[in-house]
Design goal:
Mean pLDDT: 96
Oligomer: single chain
Helix content: 40-55%
Bound molecules: iron/sulfur cluster
Largest sheet: 6 strands, mixed
Number of helices: 8
Shape: globular
Structural class: alpha/beta
Order of helices and strands: HEEHHEHEHHEEHH
CATH superfamily: Uracil-DNA glycosylase-like domain
CATH topology: Uracil-DNA Glycosylase, subunit E
Strand order of the largest sheet: 1-3-2-4-6-5
CATH class: Alpha Beta
Length: 189
């Protein structure tokens, strides 16, 4: 298995799909790779492309605030995307682009070995949890895959577009906090 640094080096030089032609930076990820919780978005936007860091624009600031609500910050989580390069005009990443890029996320996940995965938005949830995931119905529900607890939240950009959904997101965040607390205090056998 590649080390984290080897994986990052290969990813930063990647030209496997057409998104390489229009990107400024490859956005590998941010946070603590030793964290038990991995957040996954769909792909970088303009600010992320310019900085090389995921979730740094307005949606990123909201994500930081959402993490803060449950006592988390970027030193306590890892944040990555399905595609590491920005789709032009922030369109959804196309299926072949997702397929080209997903091995990097899989390799990151294998190295991080998270206990909890939180998908941010519909695209990530459809790729990671289930192709027929409906974010408006299924956000906040737990799914179990190979011993990993998985959930999806509304994407922070969707919450900026429709702030009423923030009310629905708070219980989801609290459920994540509860799950993290369970990891810290495992049930007695
Ligand atoms: S989106 Fe992923 S697969 Fe495509 S060029 Fe960027 S790193 Fe490579």
């Amino acid at each position: 298995m590649q080390t984290w640094d080897e994986l990052k080096e290969v990813c930063l030089a990647c030209r496997k799909c057409r998104l390489a032609e229009t990107r400024t930076n490859v956005v590998f990820g941010d946070g603590n790779p030793a964290s038990p919780i991995l957040f996954i978005g769909e792909g970088p936007g303009e600010q992320e492309d310019l900085s090389g860091i995921p979730f740094v624009g307005r949606a990123g600031k909201l994500l930081d605030s959402m993490l803060g609500t449950i006592g988390l910050d970027r030193g306590k989580v890892y944040i990555a995307n399905i595609v590491k390069c920005r789709p032009p005009q922030n369109r959804d990443p196309l299926p072949d682009e997702q397929e080209a890029c997903i091995p990097y996320l899989r390799a990151q996940t294998a190295l991080i070995r998270p206990k909890i995965i939180v998908c941010l938005g519909r695209i990530a949830a459809m790729k990671i949890i289930s192709p027929d995931f409906h974010i408006s119905q299924d956000h906040g529900k737990w799914f179990d895959r190979k011993g990993v607890r998985m959930m999806a939240l509304y994407h922070p950009a969707a919450l900026l577009r429709d702030p009423r959904r923030k009310t629905e997101t708070l219980p989801d965040l609290l459920a994540i906090e509860e799950e993290l607390q369970k990891l810290e205090t495992p049930a007695e056998a």
